[in-house]
Amino acid sequence: MRSWILVALAACSGGGQAVPDSAAGSDNLLRNGDFEYLDGSGWVAEWERFDSNPNGQIVVVDTAHSGAHALQWQIDAAGDGREYWVTQHGLTTQTLRAGHTYALSGWYLCDASGDVALNYIVRGEPGDSPDLSTISQAPVFPAVVGRWAPFRFEVALPGDAAPDSWQVSVHSIKFNGLATRLTVDDVWLVEL
């Protein structure tokens, strides 16, 4: 599971005041990336969650970077090594184009340090090919604890990729032995 490859990663300093790409005037390629629109069950519309591993869950919270809602990974101390993520499916090949590079950025708030990872996964549909992620790499985020900080990744799609559509996931896994809360908000995907 940790054998996914990294195509490109460029991270802004977690302690800086860098402005994610949402402020650059580009249109967000993700639907409901600010997590403001909820479905009938109270979950964020347009996003599927995978939090069926024991000792953790992803919930909608009102501790937001902006607006009224954000997503929070709530992972118990016993949840070390468990993976939890949210995915947006059905991004068209006109939206994400083979051979192009994209920035995935947003804001996070984490209450614990050490061995906590915030990652991305970009996969072609169907068949999960190509399969691009930062999961097998050393964690870059969260580098700041106790306050909102930006995150930013660059994703270069292979020029020969030919999926029917794409999925984009925000993923977390931890190994710190602590109950940890990781909140994410205002996620943007823009072409560079």
- The average pLDDT score comes to 89
Class per helix and strand makeup: mainly beta
Distance between the termini: 29 Å
Number of helices: 0
Beta content: 35-45%
The best one-word shape is globular
Portion in helices: under 10%
The H/E string reads EEEEEEEEEE
Strand order within the widest sheet? 1-4-9-6-7
Radius of gyration: 15 Å
By DSSP, the count of extended strands is 10
> Major sheet: size, sense and barrel closure?
5 strands, antiparallel
Model regions low in confidence, pLDDT < 50 over at least 5 residues: 1-18
Model description:
There is one protein chain. The protein is an all-beta fold and 192 residues long. Helix content is 0%, strand content 41%. The protein has strands spanning 48-50, 56-61, 70-75, 83-92, 101-110, 116-125, 131-133, 149-156, 165-174, 180-191. The strands form two sheets. The chain has a five-stranded antiparallel sheet with strand order 1-4-9-6-7, with no helix packed on it. β6 (116-125) and β7 form a beta hairpin. The two termini are 29 Å apart. Mean pLDDT is 89; it is low at 1-18.
Kindly summarize this structure in a few lines.
By secondary structure, the protein is mainly beta.
